[in-house]
Structures are given as structure tokens and as C-alpha cells.
Amino acid sequence: MSENKHTLLIIDDIIDNLMLLGEAMSPEYKIKVATHGAQGLELAVQEPLPDLILLDIMMPGMDGYEVCRRLKADSRSKHIPVIFLSALDKESDELQGLDAGAVDFITKPFKLEIVRARISTQIELLRMRQQLQEARLRAEAASQSKSVFLANMSHEIRTPMSAIMGMTDLALEKAADPQQRSYLETVKFSADSLLSLINDILDFSKIEAGQMELDEHPFLLADAVEAAVRTVSVLSREKGLDIITEISPELPRAVEGDSLRFRQIILNLLSNAIKFSEQGPVRIVIRQEKSGPESVSVRVSVIDRGIGIRADKIGTVFSAFSQADSSVSRRFGGTGLGLAICRQLCELMDGRVWVESEEGKGSTFIFIVVFGRTAEEPMQKKKAAAAVLEDVRLQPVRVLLVEDNPANRFLLRVVLEKFQHQVTEAVDGVEALHILLEDDRFDLILSDVQMPRLDGYSLTRIIRFCEQDEDIDIDTSEQLETGLVERLRRRLRGRHRLIIAMTANAMSGDQEKCFAAGMDDYLTKPIDKEQLAATLKRWLPQS
Ligand code: ADP
User: Fold this and answer.
1) Rounded CA gap, 380 and 220, in Å?
2) Burial class (CB within 10 angstroms; exposed 0-12, middle 13-18, buried 19+) of 321
3) Atom 9 of ligand 1 has which residue's CA nearest to it?
């Protein structure tokens, strides 16, 4: 069918040539012709776009080389392959033609069969390129949806996990029987390992889906390193390995960057160093790589004297799901995701990570990341979680807890009641509004964001709308009975209520959405006692 024919554009000032070629090629191709360069350039960008251009060199006005260069400089025509057809037959002519961007060069006089064969080769290549391009786009789209699916799934798994972990903690506080305690401790240990696996999958898929965002703020370098060392201290003590930290004095004390992600990289490398070593020490050395007026590159080396990595495996350890040796993974466990995440995080921080290792002697993992300079000295390092908890002596307050998941609701109620707060429960936004209509004397509304009927964002928007005197733009969902918002407005007007969201943080943008909806703060699920206590302390009066 003629519609499926490819289009050839022939540019030649000699009409006889045009006629001859045009006629010979017309059974297989749609033909467009131009008798000079400027006309050729115009036709090259007009629909139907040519799939291939046959171009003479010696033409009055603009010669073929110039036409070719202009075709290649224009984004609309630069992908169209050009074949020169010319009486010029010196090697230097051909070279000049290929330099100008042509894919082939045929000297005149030519045999029509040769021209036909060469055109058909180029068209075939073009077709294959298009197929490859389409396949690549399909693969990228599939990989993107897979990553989004994984990120969503790991979030879904984290919600019941937080209930399991929270309930286990509560049960452990009550259990006196040693056997029951040991069962519960095993549950807790397994739940912790499962959560760390899920977090790895979540991080990995978030980065793959382009959803990972850095949370940058001033922090003390030494604090982040110390926090990572503290986290692995039990493990290193069990194995009898010392951890030695050296931080170069030329480094600034405080920098601006994502301290949690920086700590995560160090923690990953340190845990591996401990996991794969029988003798210590494990050294962590932090130096300044480069220093500029706005930024500083920090170089961190984690050095162990462990089993090392075979030379032929070194290239693969940073790939996802890759382990240097399957017998190693059987012995030591792990998913092979840790280093892949480290690599991605380093790249997000404008840096890189690599390893130098000798089998049987040990490994040195090195990474460089770039931080901003900051004049601001961050607040003194956070106290250990337990200390924060003990510190909090909040006045008891009234909390409206809006959460659709019954296990999480129960868990949060228990934790809030431990702090002597008085809790009223709502299973979704609609129920919360009805409760507020009856009684609005709550000091805090703690609301999940994803809920059936009316989600946390809409709930907040409606409350804020009702609190304000002037009109704001809201979409009062159809599920609300008529008149409800009007009645609520009469009750809520004039006082700002503290609303704290509980977000899944599975995808970037959750937190921005919370603030845009009018929430005052957010907690990230799974919500633990420490996080809850620290946030409440920020907002609620202390006794
Ligand atoms: P995991 O530790 O979960 O298997 P990682 O991505 O952290 O995954 O590591 C990938 C692999 O790299 C490990 O399975 C191990 O074979 C190798 N590896 C990482 N760190 C070390 C180390 N310090 N010493 C020896 N081998 C290591």
C-alpha cells in the first residue's frame, strides 16, 4: 500500500538526474524532489518527512556539503540519513561528505541497482533503529511502573508491619514470663529484619522510579558518623571488632546536606565491613576531597581486614541483587541491595562510590559526596531516642485520632494513652467531621492521609475552610451530607486547630501535599513512640 511507503527526497540541480532516479525509485518509495539546496532544506522539514535524502554536491548557490551540514544542525531533520550522489570521486570528497554527516557516498555515474541496494540498506537500518527506540521506550515504561508498584507495595507492607512491631513492643512491656518474653523477642527481631528488608526495597524502587528526594539541612558531620557507629556497636562488640573513626580537622564541623542518607551510606558500608570480617579493626576515615566557596566534597573510606572480594567480582558488587559469591550470601544473608542503594545515593549527592579489595586481605570502600557550606550551626545533636522519651512531660491533651486501619488505630491509642492523653477515634474523614460537629475541643487532630470516603488532605482542607472567615477554594466531596460544612463552619470558625498528618512517604510529594492542604506537621509511618513523642513535644505544652 502506498501509505506505507517510505519517502525519499532527491536534491539535484540536473533535471535529468531527478527524472531518472525518481522514476526508478517510485515503485518502492514516495518521491519528493528539489532542484536546489534551499528548496531541499524546506522540503526536508515538511510532512511527510523524508525517511532518506539523496543529495548532489555540486549545485549552484548552496553546495551539497552545506545543505547536509544545515540538515544536521536542525533538530527536525538531523536524524534523516543522507546519501551523497556525486561526480566528485576523490577520497577527500567522500571524506568531506561523511564529515558533513552523510551515511554513504555514491559516485556518478552510478548503477541504479547499486543505488537501490544502498537506499534499501539505510531504510532497513532506519526501521531497526525505530524498532529499538520503541522497544526501549516500552522497556523504560515497564521498568518505571514496576518501580512504582514496588514502592507502593513496600509501603502497603509497612503499614501492617508497624502494627506488628508496635504491638510486640507493648506485649514485651507487659510480659513477665521468661519464655513468653523470648518468643516475643524473636518476633521483634524477625519483624526488625523484615522491616529493614522492606525499607531497602522501598528505597531502591523509589530511586529507580525517580521519586527519591534529598532532605537537606545543616548538620554536624561528626554526629552523622557517630550515629552510624552507634547503630552497629552491638554487632561489632559481639564479633569483638573495634571501630576506629578518624575525622580530618580541615573539614568544616557543620555542612548542609541530607544527614540521614549520608548516615545510611556509612551504616551500610560499616555493617558489611563487620559482616564480612573476623578480625578488626574496622576503620572509618573521613577527609576533605575538595573545597570550594559554596561546597565541600567529603571522602569517606571504610576499611576492613575481612574476607575481601575476588578481582573478577569487584565490578558487580554495586549492581542490584548482586552478591560476590552465592556461598557468601548463604553464610551471611543479605539481599545484594545495600551497595546498589549506596551507589544511587552517592550519585544523588553528586558523588560516587567504589571499592579496592584483595581476597583474603580485606576491602576498602570509598565514597565521595558533595555538601553545601553552611554558616548555621545546627541544633545540638538529638539526644538518644530513649532520652527524648523520658524528657517528654507533656500536659495531657485531647486527641482526635483519624485512622482507617484498626490495628494502627489501636496501637496509636495505646501509645497516646500511655502519655495520659485522652483519645477519640474516627475511622475516616467523614466520621471525624461528624465528631467535630458535636465536640470541637480537641488540642490535636492526628490524621492518616490515605483513607476511604474522605482522605486526610480533604479533611484538613475542609477544617481549614471552616476555621477561616474568608472563602477558600475547596472541593467538598459528594459524600458529605448537605449542610454539614455550613454547620461545621459555625462551630469551627475563628480558631486554628493543630493537625498532624501520618504519611506513608512512599512517593515523593506526600509531605508537600500535607502542607499544601494546611496541615501543621507530619509523622512518617511506621510511627514509633520516639517519633511521636518528639513531634508532640514540638507542638504541645509541656508541664
Ligand atoms: P548484601 O550485603 O545484602 O549481600 P550488598 O549490596 O551490601 O548486599 O553487598 C553486595 C555483595 O558485596 C555482598 O554480598 C558481598 O559479596 C560483597 N561485599 C560487600 N561488602 C563487602 C566487604 N566489606 N567485604 C567483602 N565483601 C563485601
Assistant:
1) 9
2) exposed
3) 336
Check whether residue 368 and residue 418 sit in a common domain: no
What residues are in contact with ligand 1 under a 6 Å CB criterion?
A: 272-273, 276, 304, 306-309, 317, 323-325, 328-329, 334-340, 363
Is residue 123 situated within a structural domain? no
Asked if 271 and 187 sit in the same domain, the reply is no
Nearest atom in ligand 1 to the alpha carbon of residue 276 is: 24
Do the domain assignments include residue 162? yes
**Confidence check: pLDDT of 317 > 80:** yes
- Boundary of a domain, candidates 160, 190, 208: 208
> 247 exposed, middle or buried (CB, 10 Å; 0-12, 13-18, 19+)?
middle
d(CA 323, ligand 1 centre) in Å: 6
- Going by alpha carbons, the residue nearest to atom 3 of ligand 1 is 334
**Burial (Cβ within 10 Å: 0-12, 13-18, ≥19) of residue 197:** middle
Lowest-confidence pick of 25-29, 63-67, 353-357, 372-376: 372-376
Q: Among 379, 413, 431, which residue terminates a domain? A: 379
Say whether both 287 and 434 belong to one domain.
no
Q: Could you report the per-residue pLDDT of 508-521, keeping only the tens digit for each?
A: 667 788 888 899 99
| 43/191 same-domain check | no
- 85 close to 115: Cβ distance less than 8 angstroms: yes
Spatial separation of the C-alpha atoms in residues 302 and 281, rounded to whole Å = 11
pTM for this model (two decimals): 0.60
Interval 435-489: pLDDT, tens: 999 998 899 999 998 888 888 999 999 999 888 866 655 555 556 777 888 888 8
Q: Considering the domain boundaries, does residue 15 fall inside one?
A: yes
Taking only the tens place, the pLDDT of each residue in 26-38 is 999 999 999 999 9
* Identity at 146, one-letter amino acid code: K
Strands in 304-418 per DSSP E: 352-358, 362-373, 398-402
Percent of the chain having pLDDT more than 70?
90
Best probe residue, ligand 1, of 309, 337, 353, 355 (max atoms within 8 Å of C-beta): 309
Q: Which of 317, 321, 329, 342 to mutate to test the pocket of ligand 1 (most atoms within 8 A of CB)?
A: 317
**Which structural domain range is residue 450 located in?**
390-539
For the chain, the domain total comes to 4
Over the chain, what is the mean pLDDT? 86
- Whether residues 371 and 325 share a domain: the answer is yes
Residue 89 within a domain: yes
